[in-house]
User: Fold this.
Amino acid sequence: MREISCAALQAAVTELFLKANREIAPDIRQAMEAARDAETSPAARYALEQLVDNYDCAREDGLPICQDTGMAVLFAEVGQEVHFTGGQFTDAVNAGVREAYVRGLLRKSVVADPLFDRRNTLDNCPAIIHASIVPGDRVRLLAIAKGFGSENMSRVGMLTPSAGEQGVFIYIVETARLAGPNPCPPIVVGVGIGGDFEQAALMAKHATARPLGQRHPDPRYADLENRALDAINALGIGAAGYGGLTTVLNVAIESAPTHIAGLPVAVNICCHASRHAETTL
Assistant:
């Protein structure tokens, strides 16, 4: 049994959310630079130039990439041979989020009651935590700072099996079309197919952090990813809604077994920054 202190977990979570909010992932930056260089629309090219310049300002000055510093989402793959000491796992995660958002002067965007009081918790807690038990003695942490300009454009559809591949394809592309310029394109699209209502959404959220260009291991799903990518770019929404060649940077699909009567499909949309960071303890 390997022991990991909750203090170490807290410190790791703090650094992950600071990094996710301040530093763009290398694959995202490369894709944005490529989109900028290929763009033929002057307005869209200017928008892409401004977004890339913003990445540099955030990194150099230690400032957030965006004023919406997101709701804190943490995926934790916990090795079954790990024992946390000196505290409680959930408390340590929330303490790490709290420290990141207070020390980093990141905007606190969480309200305690979703419908009636809507009072700000003032520390961006509680975080949304998805923990799973895996073999081994390591803990893999994936932090996602999820802004709601894009989250609000996401959808879950309970399709029936008769919808088939074409129905899923239409649902993915239609979600991006309905989103239009609202999620700050170019966007990153995560898709969950299968499972049930909540698992589809969970897979879609996780898929948004997949490295750009890394395709689903099943060539049929990989082909669907590529076709959806091309179709969304053909919508012509473009960077910041100014038209042009690049509306989406990536479409990533995760899939799981499902019920004989169902075909759940979730589409989670991220803005151009797709803010995430990961580490292993």
